[in-house]
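Okay, is this right?
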Amino acid sequence: MQILTRLERLDRLESWLKSDDPLILRDAATELGVSLRTIHRDLELLRERGVPVESERGRGGGVRVSSGWGIGRITLSRHEVLDLLVGLAIGEVTHGALQMGHADAVRRKLLGTFSHIEQRRIAAMRKRIRVGARASTAMFASLAEMPRQIGDEIKEAFALNCLLSVQYCDQQGRRTKRRIELHFLVLNPPVWYAVCWDHLRADMRAFRCDRIQKATVTEAGFTPRPWADFAHTMDGNPTREV
């Protein structure tokens, strides 16, 4: 079970409280891995911050916010902002009638939470996401679930041009430790590939993201290279920019 900081717990509790269903305290304590007393202390702190938490009769002691209270400002973590930025970039490939008309305004506001150097890196990120044909049935069947922590590290390394240390399990089940520069992300729906410069092999490589078993962002320090340098790693699979 992932251990959350108190700030992370408070954000999670506040999000639950804003939903339509009452928050059952015992269920919240179990999911967050803390005691019922800790949940009561966290709720009291939310009240002190101005969140109008109200008790509601029912199983296990339910609470919710006052029905007249609006959502107000949304506080996002760094990884949540990166999630949204990558999601916006991917969404733009559809060019459909339901495309987000305010995507540019949303992106500008999200970028404002990063330093100027990081903003420039993220602004260039869209050109480094490519989309190809849908994955084959066999590829889809072998797709594994990727832990959220690994996905967070991949997105941060990609968006901010940081080196990434990973443990990778290949198709034959062999595990190796790699230190990679993540230059492109390629989506063959629903399979993601990290197209990289691999320091272990001193060559370009494409890694299936769901086969990355451990990932840790290390230091920043590479300049993204053009797609032409890496296209051959996808075995001739044509892709297009997002």
